[in-house]
Amino acid sequence: MDLMPQNMNPAEFMNAHDVLKAFLDRISLVFIEYFKINCHNRSRQRRMLGKLIAEWEILQEEAAGVDEVFHRLVEQQLQGIENGAFIAESSADTAAPYYFSSWAYDLKLNMIEKILFLGFELELYGPHEYIMIYWYLQCVLGSRTFLLERMTSFTVEQTSSSPAVLANSKQTTSTTEVVDYVQVSQLLTQTKKILCEAILKLLLTAQYTGQLRQFKPIFDDEETRYTQRFKPFAALSSPPHPTYPMFLENITVEEMDVPQMLMIIKTDLERVRRYLEHILVLMPEEVNMDKCFDYFKSVRMAMVCG
């Protein structure tokens, strides 16, 4: 209780402590299970992630409840401060972030992304499905890019404006590591998003010019296949699940300036190359890959050379 901030209700403070402890106890087991999945082969990983993602949907909602509890604590503390200047300054700041639910949401998006990419590694998709898969991937990566941009913006703002952080060298080092991690994650996600968009544009251009050979099964129904491919994500509240009509509306091309589109694709691929080259010069601790940096770097190098 000696560490309790001033102007805060002791009962509310202890309730927040208990809520957080209960949440961490519950999520620790699921978090360990998430990492244990990586010990299995690729096929089993994909199948297990498809089942686990529903549980992370529930955990994200519980995490939002924890965030709300701490938001109320912060509001009570600000209301109890009599210094009007401090209140005015605090009210002008960015709204309190959803730390725990943002973390859970980011992990959930990462799982969706991994499930979709594993489909390529396992050769589950036919060439006639590539447009559908890349379109859905760029939607998921767009949601994750937006989330990481918000996280980066808030983290940088809090780091530069907090006197307590700036005065404590140990805390400053820790906060800098967090900022580096979030910024690199944002850059990697944005790079993958631009690459998927470039491939999607290339596929649509090839389809428009009649150069994309698609051998569809005789009894194939695209809407049914769309529903089955993305069935694990349909019941999720976030990210929003795009419907099949939305997919058709976005990929239908009636007229296209092919030379102009090829220039746009070239520009996108050049951006991807620049981002990857920048990532290659980062230090292991900046990309949070101290234990497997050589492998991480070799994969990115192959993408640049390719």
Could you walk me through the main structural features you see in this protein, from its secondary elements to its overall organization?
- The structure is a single chain.
- With 306 residues, this protein is an all-alpha fold.
- It folds into two domains: 1-122, no CATH class; 125-306, no CATH class.
- Helices cover 75% and strands 0% of the residues.
- It has twelve helices and no strands.
- It has helices spanning 10-36, 42-80, 84-91, 99-121, 130-161, 163-167, 169-208, 222-229, 231-234, 244-251, 258-280, 293-305.
- The longest helix has 40 residues, at 169-208.
Average of the residue pLDDT scores = 83
CA radius of gyration: 23 Å
DSSP helix count?
Answer: 12
Uncertain segments of ≥5 residues (pLDDT<50)?
82-94
Provide the structure class.
Answer: mainly alpha
- State the helicity in percent bands: over 70%
Order of helices and strands: HHHHHHHHHHHH
Overall shape: globular
What is the strand content?
A: under 5%
- Largest β sheet strand count, sense and barrel closure: none
Distance between the termini: 59 Å
The total domain count is 2
* SS elements, strand count: 0
